Each structure stands twice: as structure tokens, then as C-alpha cells.
Amino acid sequence: MDQRILYNFFEGKATSEEEMLVKAWVESSPENKRLFFEQRRLFDSLTLHMDEKDLQELLALKKKTRHRSVALSY
Questions:
Q1: Dist. CA 30–CA 62, nearest whole Å
Q2: Measured by CB atoms within 10 angstroms of the end CB, which terminus of the chain is less buried, N or C?
Q3: Percentage of the chain lying above the pLDDT 90 cut
């Protein structure tokens, strides 16, 4: 699942099509459900520590590098 779509979903900015895609993906396997909640926890943590600009920059970096996860250091 594309992390940008998940983050749009978490922010309430997903299209109807994206919402259906996320819901179908989550319901398709226990592993996807686990990954969904893992990404939700990451999203919640990021939003507590980052402003909108920083979060968008992180998402752009994620898209550019195409890595499955992003390591953050503070």
C-alpha cells in the first residue's frame, strides 16, 4: 500500500476511491491489518513531533527514495 494514500486516509483527505482501496487492503489479510496499525502509530507519532511542512517533506522523500520505511533520528 502506498504510504501517501494511507497518510491521506489518516488525515481524512483520501478520495472515496482511496478509502475503498485502503479498507479492502486492510481486510484482505492479517498482515495488512498489522501494517495498517503500524503505519497509523507512525503517523500519529510524526504528527505530534512535526509540523505540516516537515511531514510533507518526509512524504516527498519517501516517494523519491521508494524505501519501505524511513529511519528518523532526533
A1: 25
A2: C
A3: 47
CB 19 within 8 A of CB 6: no
Query: How far is Cα 54 from Cα 46, in angstroms, rounded to an integer?
Result: 9
Question: What are the grid coordinates assigned to 38, written together?
Answer: 503500524
CA distances from 64 to 19, 24, 38, 51, 70 (A): 24, 26, 21, 20, 12
The four Cα atoms 32, 37, 12, 20 give a dihedral, to 10 degrees, of 20
Only one residue has cell 494514500, namely 5
Q: What is the pLDDT of residue 3?
A: 87
In this prediction the pTM is: 0.64
Over range 5-9, report the average pLDDT. Answer: 92
